[in-house]
Amino acid sequence: MARSASVVGLFTLASRILGLIRDAVVAAYYPKADTDAFFIAFRIPNVLRRLTGEGALTVAFIPVFTEYLGRRGEDEARGMLASTLGLALLVMAGLSALGTALAPWVVHAFAYGFVGDQYTLAVLLTRIMFVFLLTTGLTALSMGVLNTRRHFAAPALAPALLNAVIISFVVAGTPLSGRAGLPPIVALAVGVVAGGAAQVVLQLPFLRRKGMLVGPRFDWRHPGVRRVGALMLPAVFGLAIYEINTIIAGQFASFLPEGSISYLYYAGRLIEFPMGIFVVALATVAMPSLSSHAAAGDTAALKETYRYALRMALFIILPATAGLAALAEPITSVLFQRGQFTHAMATQTALTLLGFLVGMWAGAGVRQTVPVFYALQDTKTPVKVAALSLVVYVATALLLYRRLATFGLALAVSLSSVANFSVLLLLLRVRLGRLGLRRITTSGFKALVASAGCAAVAWLVARPGDWDHGGRSPLNYALLLGAVALGIAVYVGIARVLRTPELGELADAFRRRKRGGKDKGARDDDNQTDGAGAGE
Fold first, then answer.
1. For 64, what's the count of Cα atoms within 13 Å in the CB-facing half-sphere?
2. Distance between CA atoms of residues 169 and 58, nearest Å
3. How far is residue 345's CA from residue 366's CA, in Å, rounded to a whole number?
4. What is the SS3 assignment for 279-305?
């Protein structure tokens, strides 16, 4: 799992770096009123994408597809895939057409506070980007197939390709949009659609190599498709509850001062950086293993896989939390403060980031825990827990957003994440018995101590910076890079002194990967992480 996660994490790192560059370019090219409209418009198809595409479809598809491969063979699995593809195409195309037609009402649902030109722009951008729903749905299904076949490189590379295409369209297309009499930010929306198409094309040769490049079959009565649908329905409700959180946050922010939606977006992107590089990578590679153990009825292996994923996630996310907290203002200033994005905006983004950081550890825990329920083909329990977390979020957001603005909204997300993780952990303990949480707690405490040292050193190194000048000062870049490097070194050093087991396990995994690369060709293609080869 650690070796596979390193492949996913490597490409996700590339994607996050390109994503930060993309965000910096967007912040520099467009005024905050336009970016507020874009982020709302971009969120709308993304909500449906998570509900019907890479969210519910993926988590419902992987356990059933894994079972078909293991018990019925590749021919039956291909037939089930073709039938799922046909139904997915119909649903995604229908939703894209419906969303385009109903864009004015959909924008009101997501940002009722928008009026005038900003509302008109958001409607236009929404209509352009609804095509993105269709392309990302196809990409998500392809990713599910490749991940089940233990190929992780191409799916992990797809978001990096998306970001690269978007950046190129912003830089090259923005002047063209203006000369054509269109709002300049239309180039950004068109880039999103083009990037989504590029993601689909990227997966095709790898699907062919795995013998899983099939055409759509419109057979919704297929037993496998019906099982996917049965699992998908409660998963949609669970993910819908999560997305309702996002919609409510957008509604609250639309009544706050201009730029608030952008502050939430940019701070959220910084949170996604460490989450995506390793936490989501671990959850991605764990899902096929968890599904295999669940299908075989091996509860002991299932729990061991979960413990390993959770320990590793906390080992990474705790120092990331500490480092981001210590360097919130330097990071937001250097990354975003240029062009239309002022230092006051960078400071507000940093404050919003601190609110998200309070519960980032719990969000990492949720990411590792929910797939266990999905592997057990239980999609109802996460729905119920997500509903509870929604109540927590709404209650805390109502109390905090007027007084604390975007920091209050971000803090409400953190508190709901803590409630979500705590209840999920309790219910998993009831279902599976003892989970070995004492070892996880001990490792987490050691990581927390090491993280405190990491944060202290990073803050001290960054203190001399002139952050009012953001990325215009070469000294600021040097101080920020030095603070990150020394913070990591201190964390690793303290973890080694405390004999944190995860440090040794990661080192052993990478040593085995190096040795394994020498005789890689001798291994069965379907029982090894061929993504490593693609990555290398």
1. 27
2. 29
3. 31
4. HHHHHHHHHHHHHHHHHHCCHHHHHHH
Length of the chain measured in residues: 536
Token pair 């977390």 is found at 389
Cβ within 8 Å of residue 93, ≥6 positions away: 134
How many beta carbons lie within 10 A of that of residue 356, not counting itself? Answer: 25
Task: Report the amino acid identity of residue 388.
Answer: L
- The answer to whether 387 and 239 are in contact (CB under 8 A) is no
Instruction: Please write the tens of the pLDDT for every residue from 18-62.
Output: 887 888 888 888 887 788 888 888 877 777 666 665 566 676 777
In one-letter notation, the amino acid at residue 240 is: A
What is the helix (H) or strand (E) element at residue 17, kind and residue range? helix 2-29
d(CA 485, CA 128): 42
Which backbone phi and psi does 519 adopt, to 5 degrees? -115, 30
Q: Name the residue ranges covered by the structural domains of the chain.
A: 29-255
Q: For CA atoms 499, 505, 510, 513, give the dihedral sign.
A: positive
Tokens representing residue 126 in the block: 């929404």
- Phi-psi category of residue 298: left, alpha or beta, with phi > 0 → left and psi -120 to 50 → alpha: beta
Distance CA 536, CA 527 (A): 18
Q: Are 23 and 336 in contact (CB under 8 A)?
A: yes
Cα gap 200→181, rounded to integer Å: 31
Q: Cite the DSSP H helix spans in 433-473.
A: 437-462
Q: Is 256 left (phi over 0), alpha (psi -120 to 50) or beta?
A: beta
Tokens 């509900």 — which residue? 51
Smallest Cα–Cα separation from 15: which of 189, 269, 230, 261?
Answer: 269
Q: List the alpha helices (DSSP H) in 111-222.
A: 116-129, 131-148, 153-179, 186-209
CB contact set of 188 (below 8 Å; sequence gap of 6+): 26, 30, 38, 166, 169, 170, 173, 174
Contact assessment for residue 375 and residue 390, using Cβ atoms and an 8 Å cutoff? no
- The answer to whether 269 touches 22, Cβ cutoff 8 Å, is no
Tokens coding 254? 């639309």
Give the integer Cα–Cα distance in Å for 480 and 83. 51
| CA 453 from centre of chain | 28
Q: Report H helices in 377-473.
A: 380-432, 437-462
Distance CA 534, CA 151 (A): 9
Condensed to tens digits (0 to 9), the pLDDT of residues 483-534 reads 999 999 999 999 989 988 888 777 776 666 555 544 444 444 443 333 333 3
Provide φ and ψ at 426, rounded to 5°. -65, -45
The pLDDT assigned to 336 comes to 82
**pLDDT mean over 96-118:** 82
